[in-house]
Write a structure and sequence with these properties.
It contains 17 helices and no strands. With 423 residues, it is mainly alpha-helical.
């Protein structure tokens, strides 16, 4: 049984497209419409997209098709590069790609696309035009934030293939909002490169990295805080290809730039050390790797103790607040979400390496455990924090130098665990 809404959308698009565009909607006639189709395609796709968006928002993306057949349009090369086609891939991709786009991001931003893509009457005065442009830019920026954060979370979860559609939407709307040469595009390009590398699409990742590098080279005022992220992405890409020497070169630049921007002992600089250590470990250079892992642990240990101290000061200044208070201001959080995810990933990886090493270093292992315990405390995962804190205390109390015993004992008291009970 045919969908009347779908037929109505098709007929409306045919009328809008005119005689030239009408053939586009006939089965098996796409290849014959290359000549003179550019203008008609713009009108037809715009109208069909608006109608299709309404169907998407009703939760039936599988039924959004422009042709009468059950396949999405497969356009020739000359038409497939049309800007509207490039912007809305579900007109040229297969059913699997449409579903991936829907699951990844389109379901979240579907309603937000309607006011952006709907044509509005031409404003009569300059003030109205300016207000409309400002409102459009705010909506575009909001979609960029939603798409970027969604892609970032999927990458953190190891779902690189699912992250790619969301990252692509972040890039497309960044281009619309800021222009194709803006420095604001670099984070989206780097995220796309990371997702593509993780999904095994190395040629595509290389293209995204080249675009990001070209923008940075053309922007003399680009800060070290942006440049270090590019070199880290280039280093990880080279490591994925197996080119370890080139990877170490970029990661060394990563550490230098991050240290100049945030400090030598910062967690931003420690990220480059961590990836360098991974490469040395894969090259069976364990001594170098362990020394770099120690630098990473030291940076995170210091950062987390300062974060814990800052949190305690905030709680003391507000007696009615606790670590479990849900309505705390975002600015009062000791860490960003990205720092939380990176800290758990990095410190757990180092802990696994320390515990499996042939030659044990209980002092370094205890420091990693202590850092992880503080991190889980800040995340209000008290059972895990208590477990890690007790394991760290069991190692520290047997060391000849027990300078870390006092901050560890303070953490255990916050967790309502008496250090004496562990002896």
């Amino acid at each position: 049984m045919r969908d009347k809404t779908q037929d109505g959308a098709r007929e409306k698009a045919q009328d809008e497209a005119g005689p030239k565009g009408r053939d586009l909607f006939k089965p098996n006639c796409v290849g014959s419409c290359v000549s003179g189709l550019n203008e008609a395609l713009t009108s037809a796709v715009t109208v069909a997209w608006q109608e299709s968006t309404m169907l998407l928002c009703r939760g039936i993306p599988e039924r959004v098709k422009v042709q009468r057949t059950n396949k999405a349009i497969a356009l020739p090369d000359g038409i497939s590069k049309h800007p509207l086609i490039a912007l809305f891939p579900y007109f040229v991709s297969d059913k699997d790609h449409q579903k991936a786009d829907w699951v990844s991001i389109h379901k979240q931003i579907c309603q937000l696309l309607i006011p952006i893509r709907t044509s509005l009457p031409c404003p009569t005065i300059e003030r109205e035009r300016k207000h409309g442009m400002e409102q459009l830019l705010r909506r575009q920026k909001y979609i960029i934030d939603v798409a970027y954060s969604t892609a970032q979370q999927l990458v953190w979860a190891g779902k690189h293939e699912e992250a790619r559609p969301a990252a692509l939407h972040a890039l497309r709307f960044s281009i619309e909002a800021y222009g194709s040469d803006s420095l604001q595009l670099v984070p989206a390009y780097l995220l796309l490169a990371e997702a593509s590398t993780g999904a095994g699409h190395l040629p595509e990742a290389s293209k995204y990295l080249s675009q990001a590098e070209w923008i940075i080279l053309r922007t003399p005022e680009c800060s070290a805080a942006v440049q270090y992220r590019l070199h880290r992405s280039l280093g990880l890409f080279c490591a994925a290809k197996g080119d370890f020497e080139e990877a170490l070169y970029h990661l060394a630049n990563d550490v230098y730039l991050a240290a100049s921007a945030f400090g030598l002992k910062s967690i931003e600089a420690s990220g480059g050390y961590f990836h360098m250590a991974d490469i040395f470990f894969r090259q069976n250079k364990a001594d170098i790797a362990h020394s770099l892992y120690a630098e990473v642990t030291s940076a995170w240990h210091s950062f987390l103790l300062k974060s814990l101290q800052a949190q305690q000061q905030v709680l003391q200044s507000r007696p009615g607040m606790s670590v479990f208070t849900e309505d705390r201001d975002v600015s009062e959080e000791p860490m960003t979400e990205a720092q939380q995810v990176e800290g758990i990933r990095v410190l757990n990886a180092i802990l696994d390496i320390r515990e499996q090493a042939p030659t044990q270093q209980p002092g370094e292992t205890a420091r990693v455990l202590h850092a992880l315990a503080v991190l889980h405390y800040l995340l209000t995962d008290m059972p895990k924090a208590r477990e890690l804190g007790l394991k760290a205390f069991a190692l520290v109390k047997h060391l000849p130098q027990q300078e870390s015993l006092e901050p560890l004992g303070h953490l255990l008291k916050l967790l309502n665990v008496e250090p004496s009970s562990t002896k």
